[in-house]
Write a structure and sequence with these properties.
This protein has about 350 residues and is an alpha/beta fold. The chain has twelve helices and 14 strands. Strands 3-2-1-4-5-6-11 form a seven-stranded parallel beta sheet, sandwiched between helices. Strands 8-13-14 form a three-stranded mixed beta sheet, sandwiched between helices. Strand 1, helix 1 and strand 2 form a beta-alpha-beta unit. Helix 1 crosses helix 7 and helix 4 runs parallel beside helix 5. The longest helix is centred in the N-terminal third of the chain and has 22 residues. The radius of gyration is 19 Å and the shape is globular. The protein starts with a strand and ends with a strand. The structure holds nicotinamide-adenine-dinucleotide (NAD) and 2'deoxy-thymidine-5'-diphospho-alpha-D-glucose (DAU). Nicotinamide-adenine-dinucleotide (NAD) binds next to helix 1, helix 4 and strand 5.
Length: about 350
């Protein structure tokens, strides 16, 4: 039996990972610690809520007393996997402070508790955004960090701290840095679920700038398999890039969504660009692939599955696209959409 503490486990990737871990390892037990911010949602974990190997604790990773108590309880974890973060670039431009607090200070609190209570493994979930933009070639794990947004900078801070805990204190830290995930249960502020759900409702799709930015799209279940592999075969002190080598231009992704849903291209609106918008992300994932990982399905298959999931699970996102979401949408897109241009 092995016990896991999964912080941020009620979010998009975290909840997919909790489901994966419980299904793939019948002797693993999972405690989710999650603050349930606007992005945390217990609906994401409905199908595991009665599993006797799962328990949920509502709380903040910045709360050192709570994190310490979890480590001192009879269910104390052997492995900590930290997904908890403020994760949206656009929101980090509106409120950078909350990103520093959770992504840097919160990571510190988790690391410090893991050091004090001696864990087998501390896995920090990070992002390709810490490397910054790259116009040609791909980033390796050894490349310097050059983050652009407050979100990316705070994630880079968390990474540096985690590696320092390995170097200074011998804490068995491993980091994964993945590219853009997509799939079920992604909060509809992010590009793919926003565009799919807006398209279902015949609402405009706000494409930033010229829409020719490039992202390397990774199906969330393939990321979960990569994280699982790194937990079992990763070496302490090492970083592993996780990218599917499925680079697509944003405009192409938007058009693909409209095609699957049978909606008109005219729904796309070119709107004012995101400040500091990184042009292209690209990862060299040879190190992970040498452990035996590869994506399980093509980008097109995974996209179709994802679009179908949002179409079939409107109960899940319609609840979210009200209240706080509408206020954020008005703030981030109101002005932009008033000046938006239809596709030429
Ligand atoms: P998400 O926003 O969907 O989920 C984040 C979760 O963390 C939520 O459940 C939220 O309630 C929780 N949380 C936030 N602050 C907290 C706090 N102080 N204490 C406890 N819980 C807190 O994010 P996601 O897209 O699932 O991303 C998960 C992790 O993966 C993040 O660390 C992110 O940086 C990283 N990542 C995401 C992507 C992506 O494409 N989504 C790609 C690479 C890396
Ligand atoms: O690369 C990994 C990162 O991917 C993660 O670390 C972040 O947590 C995650 O949010 C994501 O960041 P991005 O900024 O790349 O993702 P987002 O979904 O916000 O945007 C994807 C692309 O689509 C980006 O080029 C901006 C563009 N976009 C996004 C939105 C929300 C638009 O054109 N219009 C939009 O309304």
């Amino acid at each position: 039996m092995r016990r896991f503490l999964v912080s941020g486990g009620a979010g998009f990737i975290g909840s997919n990972f909790v489901r994966h871990l419980l299904n793939a390892h019948p002797d693993y037990h999972v405690t989710v610690l999650d603050k349930l911010t606007y992005a945390g949602n217990l609906d994401n974990l409905l199908d595991v809520q009665d599993n006797p190997r799962y328990r949920f604790i509502k709380g903040d990773i910045c709360d050192a007393a709570l994190v310490g108590a979890i480590h001192e309880s009879p269910d104390r974890p052997h492995v900590v996997v930290n997904f908890a973060a403020e994760s949206h670039v656009d929101r980090s431009l509106l409120d950078p402070g909350s990103f520093l607090r959770t992504d840097v200070q919160g990571t510190y609190v988790l690391l410090e508790a893991a050091r004090k209570h001696v864990v087998e493994l501390f896995l920090q979930i990070s992002t390709d955004e810490v490397y910054g933009s790259i116009l040609e070639g791909s980033f390796k794990e050894t490349d310097p960090l050059n983050p652009s947004s407050p979100y990316a900078a705070s994630k880079a801070g968390g990474d540096m701290l985690a590696l320092a805990y390995h170097t200074s204190f011998g804490l068995p830290v491993v980091i994964t840095r993945s590219s853009n995930n997509f799939g079920p249960y992604q909060y509809p502020e992010k590009f793919i679920p926003l565009f799919v759900t807006n398209a279902i409702d015949g609402e405009p799709l706000p494409l930033y700038g010229d829409g020719l930015q490039v992202r390397d799209w990774l199906y969330v279940l393939d990321n979960c398999r990569a994280i699982d592999l790194v937990i079992h075969q990763g070496a302490p002190g090492e970083v592993y890039n996780v990218g599917a080598s499925s680079e697509r231009v944003n405009l192409e992704v938007a058009e693909g969504i409209l095609r699957v849903l049978g909606k008109p291209r005219e729904l796309v609106r070119h709107v004012t660009d995101r400040p500091g918008h990184d042009r292209r992300y690209s990862l060299d994932s040879a190190k992970l692939r040498s452990l035996g990982w590869a994506p399980s399905r093509s980008h097109e298959e995974a996209m179709e599955e994802t679009v179908r999931w949002y179409f079939d699970n409107q109960w899940w996102w319609r609840k979210i696209k009200s209240g706080e979401f509408l206020e954020y949408y008005r703030q981030n897109y109101g002005e932009r959409l008033r000046g938006g241009q239809p596709l030429g």
